[in-house]
Structure formats: structure tokens, C-alpha cells
Write a structure and sequence with these properties.
By secondary structure, this protein is an alpha/beta fold. The protein is built from seven helices and six strands.
Length: 200
């Protein structure tokens, strides 16, 4: 488990953000930190960002992080989850229902004000870590979770922009983003955070 806080204490900022999920979150934190902007160049008087991640994390591992989430007391949670579940054979419908349940739980029981659910991104076909028909499964999951969350107040399905044309060129190993991919992912996540906090 990897836990990384930005340089700014959560209680000092108006909006506390928790990035939660698998290795994409860890890599995002490292990308931001290495560029001297762990707070994603957002005003530290308004935003404080913490990152909680585990390589290979699935929904079963994520739901076990409630105590850590509670300690951080985030207003906004960005969930980057699903790729490892789908790769292990979990059906798109089952995963979407589980993601929705957890997002609603955070709103109802952990005093979270907004939950952002990231779409799952494609993997390179032919990669040893890309199961057969994986990208078709990803498409089915994204469509299902988007539909399920449409009318859930406080939860937003987030589609990453500028990451689909020539998407295979954004991958370093068939699964994770390269430097260009991380930069686009960073910009998209930053936009999601700003959008989620506009009405808080």
C-alpha cells in the first residue's frame, strides 16, 4: 500500500481530495511530485491532495481502505479502479454494481461530498497482461457504470479527454501510461477535481 500526501495539510485547505485506486494513482503521484507539483498546481489554500494506492488493487482491496479514508476525511474521492477486476474475469455488470455501491456508501456514511469514478482505459492487445477481449469488456463496463451513475447525486463518471486517439502510443508497457500518457492523465484528473469542487 502506498500513501502519499501533498505538501499541504488537508485541514489547511478548503477542499480535501483523495486519489484512491491501483497503480495509476501511485504513478500519478510520482509524476506530479517529480515535477514539483504534488498539489497539481492548484491553490494550496483551496485544495489539498492525498494519494492512496496499491498496485493491482481491485474493488475487494479498495473497500478495505475505509479506515484510511476516514482518517483523511476527504470531501472529494477520485476512484481509479476496475482494470484489474476486469482482467481477472469479473463481469462488467457485477463490477459496475460494486463500484456504485461503494461510491454511494462514501457519500452516505463517510461524509464525502463528491465521488468521481474514472472510466477504465484500454490495454494494448497482444500484451501478456491483456486478456482476450479485454478492451471489449472495458467498453461494456464504461457504458454500464456511466448509465448506473447518471442519476446518482454526488457521483460523477469521468471520461478522460485527449486520450483515445492513438491511445496505444500513450502506453509504456501495454498497461501503464508513458510520460505523454501520464501528462494527459494528470490534466484530465486535475480537470475532474476542479469540476467536482465548483459547487462545494
Amino acid at each position: 500500500m502506498s500513501w502519499y500526501d501533498s505538501a499541504f495539510p488537508p485541514l489547511a485547505a478548503r477542499h480535501s481530495i483523495l486519489m484512491l485506486g491501483h497503480s495509476f494513482v501511485h504513478r500519478l503521484a510520482r509524476f506530479a511530485r517529480d515535477r514539483g507539483c504534488p498539489n497539481m498546481t492548484l491553490d494550496p489554500s483551496l485544495y489539498s491532495i492525498a494519494y492512496l494506492s496499491e498496485g493491482g488493487m481491485r474493488m475487494s482491496g479498495l473497500v478495505n481502505q475505509v479506515a484510511a479514508i476516514r482518517r483523511n476525511r476527504p470531501q472529494v474521492v477520485f476512484m481509479e479502479i476496475g482494470t484489474n477486476d476486469l482482467a481477472s474475469g469479473v463481469s462488467p455488470d457485477s463490477l459496475a454494481q460494486e463500484v456504485k455501491r461503494f461510491a454511494v456508501y462514501l457519500l452516505q456514511h463517510e461524509n464525502v461530498k463528491r465521488v468521481i469514478v474514472s472510466q477504465v482505459t484500454f490495454r494494448a492487445e497482444g500484451s501478456p497482461r491483456t486478456p482476450k477481449d479485454f478492451n471489449r469488456t472495458v467498453t461494456a463496463y464504461n457504458a454500464t457504470i456511466h448509465k448506473l451513475l447518471k442519476n446518482v447525486d454526488g457521483v460523477k463518471f469521468w471520461r478522460h479527454r485527449n486520450m483515445w486517439a492513438h491511445w496505444q502510443q500513450l502506453l509504456s508497457d501495454g498497461v501503464h501510461f508513458n510520460d505523454t500518457g501520464n501528462r494527459r492523465y494528470y490534466n484530465s484528473v486535475r480537470g475532474a477535481i476542479i469540476a467536482a469542487t465548483k459547487k462545494l
